[in-house]
Amino acid sequence: MIGRTVRRRTLGTMKIPQPDPVYGTPPQYYPAMPYGMPPRRSWRGPLIPLIPLALFACLFFGGSYLVASEPDVEAEGGAGFAVVDGREALLVPYTRHGPRGMFQLMFQDMFQVRLAARDTGTGELRWDTQLSDGIVGNADVLAAGARYAYVAMDSGLVVLDLADGAKVAEGAGIEGLGSSYIAAPWAYRFDADNRRVVTMGGDGRVSTIALDTATATPADPATTAAWAGQLSESAAREVRTSTRPQAEYAGGQVELVARGDGGPGHTLVKRAPDGDRTAVGDAVFQQAGLVISGTALAGAGSEQALVVHNRGVNDPARQLSAVSLATGKVTATIPVDRSSFTAVVTSPQGVTAIGVGPVVAVLHPDGRLTAVPFGSADFFGNPS
């Protein structure tokens, strides 16, 4: 061979040429990629343009949430009580106006009428349901059975499941009412003696809905005669809650009178039917008034008086205090942001509730007075 040395090896009588050994690193071979497999691409590339968008979204939604004020929350007058999962719960209708932040503005109703259920013992929120999206909406809890709650509203009657607050039926969707339903709260009342809701239809027909059902049936002649006059706009009567210097209770009257020594403030006294007066403790209240429902003292069923007053002679901040009529001791005091109250309701267990702006003051038979908040929501507008 030309240019190559060939070694020969003798095999028998035949000589076979052998190539010289090659020294060095053998060439590297890599397996080829399977046919049709695309090459790997970095995930960072497509996401880089999204970073400014994500930062803008955080600033837009998060910033608007941080700088926005809390929505206006106000308790409605028709609270009630129910048993949810074996525990007593307070049903509070309230209005919530104005979203907080751009996310709520885009995905939540600006005006809401809602109903919240809170455990009276622990204050735990059981559920919170939106009833309507009206600018103005009156809601009154008529009654609650073992399964359903019944709420009279400006839009008609709403039946709710007590387990989770879901709507069972409302307005024209209530079987037996249909298109003859009336969109006004005065057309619905609760017949406590017979445990049923009584309704007036647009055709003048009186119907009844038994508790824990969502079906209206025509009333018998006796029921129609008894309730027809009460189911009208002129017969609708609201029991107002206000503050006065005197109020009635089972033992006579309770009064706020000027201090005997001429100093500023008032003290509590009880007046018996014969006119005899007895001092109720020695606590002095500034710019005070007794909370009453109609003409009766709120909380009198548990031998308590609710007094709204200034914190001090020179401190105009308002407070609500519970005073024992038996001992005269101030058992509890909570701050309030106003002196106007919603209707007073009392449960069979003797718990008294009264709405004060964005909280409900709950007076227990043992004298405990707690402020139960409602209407709060998280970033997304979900009740919390």
TrEMBL record:
This is Uncharacterized protein. Keywords: Membrane, Transmembrane, Transmembrane helix. InterPro entries: PA2928-like, Quino_amine_DH_bsu, WD40/YVTN_repeat-like_dom_sf. The chain crosses the membrane at residues 47-68. The lineage of its organism: Bacteria, Bacillati, Actinomycetota, Actinomycetes, Pseudonocardiales. It comes from the Bacteria. The keyword Transmembrane applies.
